[in-house]
Amino acid sequence: MTHLSNIHLPDTDRVAGDELSPGTELSNGQYVVEKYLNCGGFGITYLARDSLGRKVVIKECFPNAICCRAGENVRLRSRTYEVDFDRAVDLFQKEARALAALEHPNIVGVHQIFQANGTAYMALDFIEGMDLLDMLDAHPEVRSPAAIRELSVILLHALIYVHDNGILHRDISPDNILLDTAGTPILIDFGAARQGATQASRILSRVYTVKDGYSPQEFYFAGSAQSPSSDLYALAATFYHLIDGSAPPNSSLRLAAVAEDKPDPYVPLAGRFPAFDDRLLASIDRCMCLFAKDRLPDARAWLDEITGEAVRRPDAATIRADKDITRQIAELVEENHKAIAERPRNAPQPEARPAPPPGEAPDERAYWAILNEDPAGPEATDPDHRLRADPDGKRRARRLTALLSWLIWAPRRHIDHNI
Fold it and tell me: What is the mean predicted confidence (pLDDT) over 305-327?
């Protein structure tokens, strides 16, 4: 397939750069671009509206080392890049399909994959809130021992789910963890396609695939073995930043220092922050080890280190049953939303469901709290309820209750989803 056909000259009144202009329709009018959000070496993100008027985020496969914009179409900088671009598009779609199969409240959802303008796109959840990097300045409460401990447990459960599905995130950092207005931490911007592209093509290795301070040293070298412990390094670096106030030293510089028999510039957290749990600090330091063999092997082991509770790997039957339950609940919620939308405005409202008497039907109350996001559910009075009731990481809403007091009243902000 060639990506040079049907190319129109750029409309300089509508396009200021390589991004699509506001008002551009995608997928036969199903999505309309509202504004440009962000860009990186591998793609561009936009805020858009779907056909029902809902906000979504659109990611466009756009490896700028080998392509540019011509009107709305993507044009190769040279015909010699055609094979490399096709590989990039194929890997982008492969990643999108893998992410679309994930169903977890702490992982950004993928709604649709489609092709247009000579490239590929994916439509994702729009998250309203702010990322952890912005929160460091705006809300220093995120650095409290209680918040970081709870955040670590939530994100480790999410990583267990990701890794169990055979996926590595490869780009964990404070700006790729969003906290929505309900207090739910969400992992965004998986880097699987970018890593695969650089391995598939020497030309695509120009794409920037590491993030200084957060990427482990194996990400800097093409062909290096990567494993779940690679994601643990990046997550540990994120927690290091939250606790210490600055990102840890670049892992490539650390490696160079060690190679020259100089001291590792990394300064361990253990012993420097007495307000924090020693087990948490020690586990972060261990996951920040330069070499994978010295780190904790996976997210389960890390979670066990800080909670003392082993998380078993669900068997195939459990996974199938859990997906069936998730699908059935989603269908019920969708039917409920449709019924509410179709109800006449002057129709009498249904009688409010009374709260169960104290000590009665706790499981039923928990069920309705999950469906209706009831703020008076068990977690309101017992922040650890969700963790104890869900030790195997099943996909229930996981919120950062240590920060809910300000989240309820915090002004809503729109997030720029990073590439």
Answer: 62
